[in-house]
Amino acid sequence: MTKKKTKLSTPAWILEGYDSPEEYNNSKGISKKKKTEGKTFKIRACPKCENDEIKVVLGKEEGKGTGDWECKKCGWIGQDIIRKELSEDEMMKYLDDKGEEVA
Predict the structure, then answer these.
(1) Would you state the pLDDT for residue 61?
(2) What span, in angstroms and rounded, lies between the C-alpha atoms of 72 and 87?
(3) Distance (Å, rounded) from C-alpha 68 to C-alpha 60?
(4) What is the spatial distance between Cα 102 and Cα 39, in angstroms, rounded to a whole number?
(5) What is the DSSP string of 31-57?
(6) Per-residue pLDDT of the chain (103 residues; tens, 9 = 90+)
(7) Residue 12 φ then ψ, to 5°
(8) What whole-number distance in Å separates Cα of residue 70 and Cα of residue 68?
(9) Bridge-partner residues for 77, per DSSP?
């Protein structure tokens, strides 16, 4: 039997009307730079209020997600969340600014 060929899909940067992948990545806050020193921490935030207290919205059937995120602070629901990658020093500063205790 032969394998079925999968269809190619149009990249998101073209669908959303950007001229290049770099322009799309800059507008979405996506960085391709690799951080080699120390640990990296990933933060997801609400695009409306920039709060990091967001959660995944589950569908009606248990274990099946809809791909949506919900902000606990402002009630925003959607898929275009802000994703940030921080170094260890940036993460410590972020937690200090937020008022979290660091052990």
Answers:
(1) 66
(2) 25
(3) 13
(4) 16
(5) ------SS-EEEEEE-TTT--S-EEEE
(6) 677 777 888 888 888 888 888 888 888 877 766 655 668 888 898 889 888 888 888 776 666 666 788 889 888 888 888 888 888 888 888 888 888 776 6
(7) -60, -35
(8) 7
(9) 70
The reported pTM is 0.53
Q: 53-84: b or e for each residue (b if 16 or more CB lie within 10 Å)?
A: ebeeeeeeeeeeeeeebebeeeebeeeebeeb
Half-sphere exposure of 20 (CA within 13 A, CB side): 3
| DSSP state at residue 12 | H
Q: Check: CB of residue 70 under 8 Å from CB of residue 54.
A: yes
What Cα–Cα distance (Å) separates residue 5 from each residue in 8, 11, 96?
Answer: 9, 18, 51
